[in-house]
Design goal:
- The protein has 497 residues and is α/β, with parallel strands linked by helices.
- The protein contains 20 helices and 15 strands.
- The strands form three sheets. A seven-stranded parallel β-sheet has the order 3-2-1-4-5-8-9, with helices on both faces.
- Helix 1 links the parallel strand 1 and strand 2.
- Helix 15 packs across helix 19.
- The radius of gyration is 22 Å and the shape is globular.
Length: 497
């Protein structure tokens, strides 16, 4: 019997995309995949692929009824409730002797799935859609917790200062650790506990990008009580080869000798209006002349900060494409008066979905002003463009430090720490108000440095080299991520029930 993985995804855009692409890559190699998430995301997949196509590709879709509300951990808890009816069905099938999943793989936030796997008596893997830094952080935090150097007292987490001593994370600054660890102490410990006993950790990264972190992750596992746990680096999953205007061939993550004709599953068959408008505008710009500006789908700048950025982009005299969600506020309410008239053909502001991987690989793009979410970091690495880093929270500060300190492909636009989601927690922990506003002069200076300065040119050169490493990781049978992905499949074979 071939392996069958129950793949449970957290319900957010970036997580769904990387999880589904992972499922696709596993299916290419003979693994049956049951992909589970909320029905609204499943319906988007069904708009692109028929049941017959998915069945031929060994991918089963399971819809969970439920809604998304609250913070990220509340959403994870709600997903647990939505999963219960299907879990009961799995248990009934198992008791009836019907074939079912031989292993489970779940997003890092879904730590409740550990109990699911244990009750089904199957092994589990933890999927980190954001690479190895957070995996190593949770691993080390759990070690500190077990040694009494990290503890929870009266609802507060104590001992976080010890995190700066984590081997493999020496490039991080003390304030790179997310305030979410202070905001959610119980959940922070639970995520570390999720790793204990896991069959493996699956990381959306490649060996060459984060080798010191990955080595420390492996060393800790080999010295601990669960020495059979493995680390599998299978990224970058957010490959731009599916969108590239350069017409490059699809990478080897999604092909195999057994299924050479396997069609890459993508959520987008054709560009939406804003995507078309962006590509058409870029087609009329000089080579390597445009700054792409985007802050992802979760974090957003406040109105005052948007105005400061708008002024900085205008005054810099650089060409730019700015993805600026305008719901529920209209463009006229957010941007300075007559802004788009004043910038004319030098800039483009779009408010709908755009194919970021495609835009970043466009020949007209020079650099990327980014919040440094992991998907965006990988998109930048794949495209070979330097990053003007303006992290806003969560893991983004650590991701920015990876690119800035280890690879020198990023330049921080400011030393101020943005973290709007946990501002009050930051005030409580530090005992002082946080100054997060960046004025237009500082923003303009950063833009000019990336687009015109020697630092920007140096970062561009190093980004080009890093792109080659990313391509090599998913190219041909000897790419590091291809080898690791096959190791994962082979490892799943050993977990068959």
């Amino acid at each position: 019997m071939e392996p069958h993985v129950l793949l449970i995804s957290f319900s957010s855009q970036a997580h769904i995309a990387s999880s589904f692409r992972l499922g696709e890559a596993l299916a290419c190699r003979g693994v049956t995949v049951t992909f589970v998430t909320l029905s609204k995301h499943i319906s988007q997949i069904r708009k692109v692929y028929t049941d017959e196509q998915l069945e031929s590709q060994r991918i089963n879709l399971v819809c969970l009824d439920g809604v998304e509300k609250g913070d990220i951990f509340q959403k994870a808890k709600d997903l647990e409730e939505s999963f219960k009816p299907y879990f009961e069905e799995l248990l009934r099938n198992q008791k009836a002797g019907k074939a079912g999943p031989t292993c489970l793989m779940a997003d890092r936030f879904l730590y409740w799935t550990k109990a699911v796997a244990m009750e089904l008596q199957i092994g589990w893997y933890v999927f980190f859609s954001n690479g190895s830094i957070e995996a190593r952080s949770h691993q080390y935090a759990h070690k500190l917790y077990s040694e009494g150097l990290l503890r929870i007292s009266e609802g507060k987490i104590l001992g976080m200062d010890n995190m700066v001593n984590a081997p493999g994370l020496e490039f991080l600054r003390p304030n790179d650790f997310s305030w979410s660890r202070w905001a959610y102490p119980v959940q922070t410990i639970a995520m570390g506990e999720f790793l204990v006993g896991a069959a493996g950790l699956v990381l959306n990264t490649f060996e060459e990008l984060e080798l010191p972190v990955i080595n420390s992750l492996r060393e800790e596992l080999s010295s601990g009580s669960h020495r059979d746990a493995q680390v599998f680096t299978i990224g970058p999953m957010s490959s731009e080869s599916n969108f590239s205007v350069k017409s490059e061939p699809s990478d080897a993550l999604f092909t195999s000798p057994k299924q050479a004709a396997f069609a890459h599953i993508s959520f987008v068959e054709q560009l939406e209006d804003e995507g078309k408008r962006s590509v058409e505008w870029l087609n009329h710009q000089p080579p390597s002349s445009v700054l792409y500006v985007c802050f992802g789908t979760v974090f957003s700048l406040d109105p005052r900060q948007i105005v400061a950025l708008a002024v900085a982009l205008e005054d810099s005299q650089e060409r730019f494409v700015w993805v600026l969600p305008r719901d529920p506020t209209s463009a006229e309410d957010v941007l300075p008066p007559d802004y788009e008239t004043r910038i004319g053909d030098r800039g483009l502001v779009v408010d709908g979905w755009v194919p970021q991987p495609q835009l970043l690989t466009h020949p007209s793009i020079w650099g990327f002003l980014s919040h440094c979410g992991w998907s965006s970091c990988l998109d930048g690495v794949n495209a070979g463009v330097p990053v003007l880093a303006w992290p806003q929270g969560a893991d983004q500060h650590a991701n920015a430090s990876l690119l800035e300190a280890m690879w020198k492909t990023a330049i921080r636009i400011t030393q101020k720490r943005g973290d709007g989601l946990f501002y009050r927690v930051a005030v409580e922990v530090t005992g002082k108000e946080q100054d997060t506003f960046v004025d237009h002069e500082e923003l303009e200076a950063g833009i000019r440095l990336l687009m015109r300065g020697q630092e920007g040119r140096d970062a561009r050169e190093r980004a080009t080299e890093l792109r080659r490493k990313a391509k090599a990781a998913v190219k041909d049978s000897d790419g590091s991520s291809i080898v690791s992905l096959q190791r994962l499949v082979d490892h799943m074979q050993t977990l068959r029930v």
